[in-house]
Amino acid sequence: MERRKEIQGHLFSLFTIFIWGTTFISTKILLKAFTPIEILFIRFVIGFLALLVLYPHRLNVKERKQELYFAGAGLCGITLYFLLENIALTYTFASNVGVIISIAPFFTAIFAHLLLDGEKMRVQFFVGFAVAVAGIFLISFNGSSNLKLNPLGDILAVLAAVVWAIYSVLTKKISGYHYHTILVTRRIFFYGLLFMIPVLFFVQFEPDISQIIKPVNLFNILFLGLGASAICFVTWNYALKILGAVKTSVYIYMVPVITVITSVLILHETITGIAALGILLTLAGLIISEIKFPAGPRNK
Question: Of 19-28, 188-197, 266-275, 287-296, which has the strongest mean pLDDT?
């Protein structure tokens, strides 16, 4: 039974990362008609409403301290992470951001080791981390010499990786309260949107309804709102609950792999030998990190 639950957790992680790895296509299309903050706010409003319709029950939080964890998760995993990532992309290369964000599992391992019982760090995690990051580096830069440091953008990308790690640890902590995963995710979305509202007054936020209802835009908005937000945050949070913060976070290594494969299949981009080697190294790093890695504490 426990083994079956663990397999479930890995499958949910893979499913989530597969969807998240393809979202760049939808975002790229939508950026022609909307600003990053417009896309971000609309997708999570759709996600929140979808979860409300799917499971229209109220979450009765038992203690005020628990509410603070929900607020922290919403602030870190929704508001800060996506804002920092989007702002970083305006100051530095997407390839830089791709590599830097992939170090999130490293921060997750440190925070989980310090703050969560049973989340231990092992040598194979660091070996796998090094191999995976080397692979992601090859995928992102594809053998070019386009490696340039842009301090502000790169620092913002590092901060995005840090806040995602904090989100992972907070969500694992919340899973110990044994609330329904959909209710947990919806509450996190609520706080994410709440913290996002003040930002709307300082940036361009004038989504054009005529653009939203265009079939191509509507499809991609719904994909991001229903698929990448409502469904994937639920499956990711469920995987965190089963596997723990560290084991789940290493699946982030797969995002650039999925992105490259999707680019080949959908955008008909060519894959180079360097990128293929990068994919193999990234997968090897993921496997090394997972081999004989003790699972986090399971719910009984």
Answer: 188-197
- What does the CA dihedral 211, 213, 219, 222 come to, rounded to 10 degrees? 100
Tell me which amino acid residue 239 is: A
**Of 190, 194, 186, 300, nearest to 237 (Cα)?**
186
User: Are 80 and 166 spatial neighbours (Cβ–Cβ below 8 Å)?
Assistant: no
Q: Which of 33, 30, 37, 32 is nearest to 204 (CA)?
A: 37
Computed over every residue of the chain, the mean pLDDT equals 87
Residue 90 neighbours by CB distance under 10 Å: 10
Which tokens is 174 given? 């919340």
For the entire predicted model, the pTM comes to 0.87
Q: What is the 3-state secondary structure (H, E, C) of 44-108?
A: HHHHHHHHHHHCCCCCCCCCHHHHHHHHHHHHHHHHHHHHHHHHHHHHCCHHHHHHHHCCHHHHH
Q: Which residue has the tokens 């329904």?
A: 180
Helix 215-222, helix 36-54: angle, nearest 10: 60
Q: Which residues contact 266 (CB under 8 A, 6 or more apart)?
A: 25
> Token digits for 205?
């936020």
Spatial distance between the Cα atoms of 295 and 277, rounded to a whole number of angstroms: 29
* Alpha-carbon span 250 to 129, nearest angstrom: 8
**Cβ proximity of 255 and 104 under 8 Å:** no
